[in-house]
Amino acid sequence: MARYLVTGGAGYVGSHTVLALVQRGDEVVVIDDLRQGHRGAVAPGAELVVADVADRRQVAEVFAAWRFDAVFHFAALSLVAESMAQPLRYITENLSNTLTLAEAAVQAGCLRFVLSSTAALFGYPDSELMHEGSRLDPVSAYGESKLMAERGLDWADRVHGLRSASLRYFNAAGADPGGRLGEDHNPETHLIPLAIDAALGLGPALTVFGTDYDTPDGTCIRDYVHVTDLVDAHLRVLDVLGQGRSARYNVGNGNGYSVRQVIDEVSRVCGRPVPFRTGPRRPGDPPVLVASNALLREETGWRPRHSSLSEIVRTAWEWRVAHPRGYRGG
Ligand code: UFG
132-187 pLDDT, tens per residue? Predict the structure, then answer.
């Protein structure tokens, strides 16, 4: 049995990871300020400390109270569009929280760190699939903030021996296939939950952000990866850290779907049309982001197992139908 610190463990990907760790018998301490996260999303059995990761004193207290085998750092600002309105806040907060936490981990002698990173650090693609070595040139302040965080962790590795795995998520989507957890952001800005809410009449008609991209149907193409597959990547990189090395991995399916294809799939799975209108492009959106996941497969044996678009949409839909008010509804 191991013990892990999980920041943002009441959020979307964080809560799914906490559940997986608890289920396999690990001990988990969550730090989450519950601004975005939900108390009800934290798996029973995990210890929840309600605190801001920016609060050095509280973070130090947590490291003093428990010894951890590794830290998973999910807590972050993560909206591309918001980052284009508040770039300095995004860069300051995401960078400084990552480095403050890394510093506390080093001081406590915990030298394994898993960072939630993002495909947004690539920017405009220079090849059909984004490889770990593709050009890093973010077109959003959110992407920049994670790139800087990764670079800070490189220094922590070189100087302090802090081994880190950065997982560059493509588009996390879907929900726990067992129906225990789902996606509940406030405000919700992600395509799949918004399309589902539009179909269910729980939200307004969807706006398609841009139909004039250089893609087959003019809408943006993304690589949607099931949250359960993402979680599996987090568990597997612990072995890489255990081998004493740091790594950066793309986590995606390797298949791209356009916004229009997603709308069609949501309509099909839900058996209802998705009302939508077309609108202008959203700042900070690259036209295409699709992963090469070869490195993660080769080095960890990871395979996407739930990542057909229909399974992603179906699990998201099932959770939403059962929780039309999200975690507020219990
Ligand atoms: N979209 C719409 N209408 C909406 C919402 C989204 O057309 O109402 C479009 C976006 O323009 C984009 C696609 O649907 O082309 C997906 O948008 P999301 O907001 O669901 O996701 P993003 O691609 O913007 O961002 C997500 C994560 C980021 C991560 C990125 C990497 O939120 O953290 O994937 O691909 F960096």
Answer: 999 999 999 999 999 999 999 999 999 999 999 999 999 999 999 999 999 999 99
Read off the pLDDT of residues 285-329 as tens digits, 9 standing for 90 and up.
889 999 999 999 999 999 999 989 999 999 999 999 999 999 988
ipTM score assigned to the predicted complex: 0.96
Tell me the C-alpha distance between 142 and 260, whole Å.
25
3-7 β-sheet, strand order = 47-50, 27-32, 3-7, 70-73, 112-118, 163-169, 247-251
Q: What is the CATH number of domain 3-172+225-251?
A: 3.40.50.720
Tell which residue, 204, 188, 84, has the closest CA to residue 141: 84
- Give ligand 1 pocket residues (Cβ under 6 A): 78, 80, 118-120, 170-171, 189-191, 194, 206-209, 220, 222, 259, 282, 285, 289
Active site residue 142: yes
Atom of ligand 1 nearest to the CA of 140: 36
Extents of the domains making up the chain: 3-172+225-251, 191-222+254-329
How do beta strands 257-258 and 221-222 pair? antiparallel
Residue 109 confidence (pLDDT) = 98
- Write the CATH number of the domain with boundaries 191-222+254-329: 3.90.25.10
pLDDT of residue 330 exceeding 80: no
